[in-house]
Amino acid sequence: MLGALIIVFREAIEAGLIVGIVMAVTRGLDGARTYIAGGALIGALGAGVVAFFADRLSKAFAGSGQELFNASVLALAVGMLAWHNIWMSRHGRALSQELSSVGRAVVSGDQTLYALASVVGLALMREGVEVSLFLYGVLASGETGFDVFLGGLLGLALGMATSFATFYGLVSIPSRRLFAVTTALITLLAAGLAAQSVAFLQQAGIITLFSDTLWDTSWALSDKSIFGRVLHTLIGYSDQPSTMQVIVYVMTLIGIFVATQLCAHQNLMRRTSASPTP
Amino acid sequence: MKKFNAGSFAQMLFICMLSSACISSAAWSGETYTLTIKNHHFEPAQVKAPTETPVTLLVKNLDASPEEFESKSLHIEKIIPANSEVSFQLRPLKAGVYKFVGEFHEETAKGEIIVE
């Protein structure tokens, strides 16, 4: 039972953290809960559908269906997160300074909620496939008892608890600092997901350059341990990354940082030239 | 916004799939080694492979439950549905021992590739 709990929790933890972060980022926005719940529901249903067609998916595209599915889902999530940060650097800082939370909700509501709700959906879909396949396997094989299945469900519950812990941890940060913290978190999260995405492209043989392992720190902290897994999601920690993964990680960090700085700068310039009063 | 999301997703998926269909089939090469999974054990549990040569691993899952072939050192993480088989190529490897497990049954499903 404990084994099943750990297997499922390990898979659910990434989605759990992402949901918690998104909940904190969108707190106070009109309809945020509805969007996130909707994204989560669609993601979970999507996971069920993909798991059901797992056999066909793994045979698709010369046997690279799984890898392409994972790589695309991850890349899309990276795009959404990057876009959110860029959009917020353009509008969010000014809005949060000038407008009440109601005004902010009206202005920024739809724009970033779509992006973040889809990130939630994508995270649940990807992680959900493995969880549902594992639980299905437990039921289908019949050789293991019901307690294993129960262990799996408890792992899922722990994953959800992670969401709430993350949310309450983040919202306890003073609101004037929260924006900077979540911006940094989302940038690191995106870079980590980008590195995961490229690993699947390498696995599919689409990218063959720099495929050797750059370092091995599995003796110090395995990214299969629970703490390692948390760091894996939050900052993209990997105990045996390929060189290409590290390159993509760094490039994503730099890319998002430069794009947000440029947009924030542009925005500042435009605002100061439009209204010269301090 | 909704429309844009769905469109870009479909577009991205299509491009990825298209490019992979061309590339991966062309890149397929090297000797193929076959592993079977039965009662959550790998058979053989040990495979010898040459250094710096891309090899293909064909894994047949004879069990009624899905398994996930996972190896950190090989950089592979792949689901093998029940009563099904998957194959994938390994990057050219340096000499050494590369361990792998079936993640869903880690106590029993263990194996290694010895590259020499």
Write up this protein.
The complex is a heterodimer of chains A (278) and B (116). Chain A has 9 helices and no strands. Chain A is an all-alpha fold and 278 residues long. In chain A, helix 1 packs across helix 7, helix 3 packs across helix 4 and helix 5 packs antiparallel against helix 6. Chain B is an alpha+beta fold. Chain B is 22% helix and 44% strand. Chain B is globular. Chain B starts with a helix and ends with a strand. Classes of the chains: A mainly alpha (278), B alpha+beta (116). At the A-B interface, helix 3, helix 4, helix 5 and helix 7 of A face helix 1, strand 6 and strand 7 of B.
Element layout with pairings:
The complex is a heterodimer of chains A (278) and B (116).
Chain A: H1 2-25, H2 32-52, H3 54-63, H4 65-98, H5 101-141, H6 146-171, H7 175-203, H8 226-234, H9 243-274
Helix pairs in contact in A: 1-5, 1-6, 1-7, 1-8, 2-5, 3-4, 4-5, 4-7, 4-9, 5-6, 7-9
Chain B: H1 2-27, E1 32-38, E2 41-43, E3 46-49, E4 55-61, E5 67-71, E6 76-80, E7 84-90, E8 96-102, E9 110-115
Parallel strand pairs in B: 1-4, 3-9
Antiparallel strand pairs in B: 1-2, 4-7, 5-6, 5-8, 8-9
Mean pLDDT of chain B: 82
Report the largest inter-chain contact. A-B, 50 and 44 residues
| Oligomeric state as shown | heterodimer
From N to C, what is the helix and strand string of chain A? HHHHHHHHH
How many DSSP H or I helices of chain B?
A: 1
Strand content of chain B: 35-45%
Number of strands of chain B: 9
Order of helices and strands of chain B: HEEEEEEEEE
**What general form of chain A does the structure show?**
globular
First and last CA, distance of chain B? 54 Å
Radius of gyration of chain A from CA coordinates:
20 Å
Radius of gyration of chain B: 17 Å
Sheet of most strands of chain B: 5 strands, mixed
Strand order of the largest sheet of chain B: 3-9-8-5-6
Fraction of residues in helix of chain B: 10-25%
